Amino acid sequence: MATKLIPTPGQTVGPFFALGLDRPEWADMTRGNPAGERIVIEGEVRDGDGAPVPDAIIELWQANAAGRYNSPADDQADKPLEPNFIGFGRASTDGQGRFKVTTVKPGPVPGRGNALQAPHINVAFFARGLLKQLFTRIYFADEAGNAGDPLLTSIDDEAVRNTLVARRGEGGAYRFDFILQGKNETAFLDL
Amino acid sequence: MAEPPAYARHRAGAQPPYLYPDYASTVKRAPRRGPIRFEHTLSEITAPSFSSGWAGPAATDLTKQHKGEPLGERIIVTGRILDEDGRPIPNTLVELWQCNAAGRYHHPVDQHDAPLDPNFTGAGQAITDGEGRYRFVTIKPGAYPWRNAPNAWRPAHLHFGVFGGGFVTRLITQMYFPGDPLLQYDPIYRSTADEAARVRLIAEYDPNLSEAEWALGYSFDMVLRGREATPFEAKADGH
């Protein structure tokens, strides 16, 4: 067998990533006018002292409303592909550690074997002080499929599980906070 | 549906940890709870394709973004994006950002007492070609001080972001220059325990890439996670 190459290590995005990564328009994933329910997700990022994190960047990757990813690796030919919905978004935190993204609610996507995964958005999270990305997922509190979702049901501790679930606030937007450390620490994933 | 194979896991020590106290900012930002291991699904093995150009036009010559030429040593940085099996990754986005030759970023948070260069912003992007290749022309960034420890200096570096074929292949990293005496003191560079992995972060000077009377050439390949040898359906045992 041929020798494998060793993957390149991650290194922090540092405090100046906006210079290369800031794309404010990517925080609106509905630019191509995709089908589906428009939703807003907003929240805060806090560190182990509860202090806001003003230099974090959140990347989102999701299926369209029908549950298909706009990716060559998704071969679900029975579901419609929307060429104008990329399914990738990016948002940075502001000076108070807040972020906001607009998208459509994703449909359910297949899991392993015969499992079905509840609607979710995949998140890669970067910040100064993180030497590599954190992975997590955003689920939605009003989705019945959560009860059978393979990831959510694998987490026994309800408080930990709930950190992955966005809830609608008074204005109709979903609320999802990233707590990097300590009380109510977000569940992060080893992928 | 036939399920494609999952991506291979990193071997121990080949990536930096989250908590690395020598890099002080990790102390309050590294999660305390271990991450939850989850086997890959369609969500982890899919990623956006950039072939349609939605990410915007290429910007590969950072020395031609203003009226005049930036100050500093002109360099060519080129290489391939590969997976662990050496397979090139075509049509993927490569994003680059860096400070100027004096060690100052074009960013309001950077207050280092070094001059901004009106002819240098320090940001670019490329889409890899059919052989996974990218190429930038820029200037060599300077070293700069940071407040991690008294009299601490970052070695000269370029920041790179690359996507690859899956959500889990996403990589944001830094490229360093060979022979830099600051590397041995830099906790960000040193945070990867495995030396064979760590040295991947150092570009190679390549005289064949240098262009006479004009610019020095550096080669820098970035290697992303490759596919697991066994299709994941075959080893699915529970969830």
Care to describe what's here?
The complex is a heterodimer of chains A (191) and B (239). By secondary structure, chain A is mostly beta strands. Chain A is built from 3 helices and 12 strands; from the N terminus they run H-E-E-E-E-E-E-E-E-H-H-E-E-E-E. In chain A, 7% of the residues lie in helices and 29% in strands. The model of chain A has no long low-confidence stretch (mean pLDDT 97). Chain B has one domain: Aromatic compound dioxygenase (Protocatechuate 3,4-Dioxygenase, subunit A). Chain B has 3 helices and 12 strands. In chain B, strands 2, 5, 10, 11 and 12 form a 5-stranded mixed sheet that branches. Chain B has a 4-stranded antiparallel sheet with strand order 4-3-8-9, with no helix packed on it. Chains A and B meet through helix 1, strand 5, strand 7, strand 8 and helix 2 of A and strand 1, helix 1, strand 3, strand 4 and strand 9 of B.
How do the helices and strands follow one another from N- to C-terminus of chain A? HEEEEEEEEHHEEEE
The CATH superfamily of chain B turns out to be Aromatic compound dioxygenase
Number of strands of chain A: 12
Distance between the termini of chain B: 18 Å
What's the pLDDT, averaged over the residues of chain A?
97
Name of the CATH first level of chain B: Mainly Beta
- Total count of domains of chain B: 1
The CATH topology of chain A corresponds to: Protocatechuate 3,4-Dioxygenase, subunit A
Unreliable parts of chain B: 232-239
CATH architecture descriptor text of chain A:
Sandwich
Q: Total strand count of chain B, please?
A: 12
Instruction: Count the DSSP helices of chain A.
Output: 3
Would you state the CATH class of chain A?
Mainly Beta
The CATH superfamily of chain A turns out to be Aromatic compound dioxygenase
Assembly annotation? heterodimer
Task: Indicate the proportion of strand residues of chain A.
Answer: 25-35%
Reported by name, the CATH topology of chain B is Protocatechuate 3,4-Dioxygenase, subunit A
**What is the general shape of chain B?**
globular
Question: Can you summarize the main beta sheet of chain A?
Answer: 9 strands, mixed
The secondary-structure element order of chain B is EHEEEEEEEEHHEEE
Q: How far apart are the first and last residues' alpha carbons of chain A, in Å?
A: 25 Å
